[in-house]
Amino acid sequence: MVSTPFVIYNQLVDNGPSWLGLDVSWKMALNYAFIKNWVWGKDIVYTYGPLAWLSTRTGLGIPAWLFALFDGFLIVNFYFVFIDVIKNNKNKFLAMVILISIMLVVNQTLGSDLSWVMLFLIIYWMVKTFYNQRSLFIALLLLLTVIAFYIKMNTGLIAIVLLCFHFINLFVCKKVTLLKLFACLASLVILIIASAALLRVSVISYITGSLEIIKGYNDIMYLDENHQGLEISLYLLFLAMMLWFLFKLWWQIREKKYNLILYTVASILYIFLLQKQSVLRNDLNHLYEYFSFAPIILLCGFTEPENQKPFLKYSSLAIILFALFFVSANRTIAFSLGRRITGPVTYIKQFSQYNPLAYANQPDKRYIPQRVLNSIGNKTVDIFPWDSEYAIENKLNYKPRPVFQSFSAYTEALEKINYDYYANQAPDIIIYNYDAIDNRYPFNDESLINLFVLKNYALVDTFTSNERLRMVLQRNANTIPLKFIKQKREGFFLKDTLAINQSNFIKLDIKYNIAGKIKAFLNKPPHIQISYMREDGKWFTYKTSVELLRSGIFVGNLVINDNDYLSLLTGRHTSIIKKIRFDIDNSYFDQNGFAEFYHVDYQ
């Protein structure tokens, strides 16, 4: 299970759509935040934490020995898993076939799926410490949980909740005393608090900020790519695994092994959440991730020393082989086997040649003219909408808003976090590009900040880089907060067209009905599109979400492209929005909504 490559050298591109720089920019920004000692939950709000570099394998500012130490820790954990699979099964040949198949299924570069691997190992150690409460095993379980929490908050928080239930279960089953229960829970709390101080994390803000990101993610970050055959296969794999665990749950209830139910439920939660992530993003990468990482949770059923039904063992092998069949369509079995065999040698070579500064060596891919660099100097800089690499590669004084990529500020609370930051400590310079992802309306990604920028920044230069116009905006000497004057609140029918009249900002309260809530929970959310009619009668349609609409949308002028934004920024007239309407499936929404109309002076 040696992970290769040792690190991933993110190669920037200098042409094509701007979203090609999106993933690289957040990975690099997280490392930048770590080495600059930003406070997680305050200076930076993200689901990934200060140990995100263990997942992204981005080495900017990270010593090689830290990667090697963590990978060694992972190897130790997999050693225990594999040994238990062999030791606790009489049919050693079957156990070995299952292990080899899992080895070929799991993607060798864990990447962002490290959080799922960590959750699997935590569930494994919960099962193991149910039967054997050795202090070393409990210590490993605690350490895994804390590391998982600071790699990625959402899976780490799930692990913490499961771990607390696990300790309580041990006490109920009289496997630990009350004193040891409190000792375990106290150790978890102390480790989290001590790690937070070491890693500069405001724990409550880290949790609440991340939960806010998760809250809005489901409604807006879905994709509608068409991979019907692969999706059907994924659902078949999910159904097979769900039936496997439900059969196991039924067996535990029938045999009155109620104290084992927690671990089966934890495994069901694992495959459900991973399925949810895969089908929500719905691109090839995320779909294949399910085939690659979901089957490993089946190993937890093989590490239990209690005798299991042969049906469960042989059916799990069939499930793993089914997953392997689809994984091999993306990377052949020969390729996977070859990488596993040569992995340790490649790993050692990359470790010896590791250069933690190699990442920040591509300023030519994020070109900024020298005249602009000279004028910026050491002034604080933020980048819109997401490409932090413009600041990092050119060694600028990067001081971004906490939710540092516009497409992620998709709830009212997240928008307010960024707006409050700008209202109190707005950066001197913004390098601005008017863009969005997934056919979203760019002005409504951080509408408050966009209005604040129009009011408090002036255009000082422009340049073209990566085939996009970049605007250099400088903050005015005195910043003025936005003032919203509420005009009215009224109900409306979702099928109606809303006239804008004298308003230029609207907050819309639209709710899912019960069917919509179920759909949003189990699969993708019900889709919402918003259309704007400008004064010439032409309509323009964009993707939006319940949370984005609730946070508020700008309806003063229609800003289609960079030229429109430049016109608005410099006080020239742009197309007026006259009406808006929604394109939705009525069967998933309450038919009545509420609209609050405001006027804001942004010029």
Commentary on this structure:
The chain has a five-stranded mixed beta sheet with strand order 2-1-3-5-4. Strands 6-13-8-11 form a four-stranded antiparallel beta sheet. It has four domains: 77-108 and 222-358, no CATH class; 111-220, no CATH class; 363-475, no CATH class; 484-600, Jelly Rolls, CATH 2.60.120. The model has no long low-confidence stretch (mean pLDDT 92). The protein has 21 helices and 13 strands. With 603 residues, the protein is of the alpha+beta class. The chain is globular.
Mean of the pLDDT scores? 92
Q: Structural class given helices, strands, pairing?
A: alpha+beta
Record field, number of beta strands? 13
As a percent range, the share of strand residues is: 5-15%
User: How many domain regions?
Assistant: 4
Low-pLDDT parts are: none
Q: Give the helix tally.
A: 21
Helix content: 40-55%
The radius of gyration over CA amounts to 26 Å
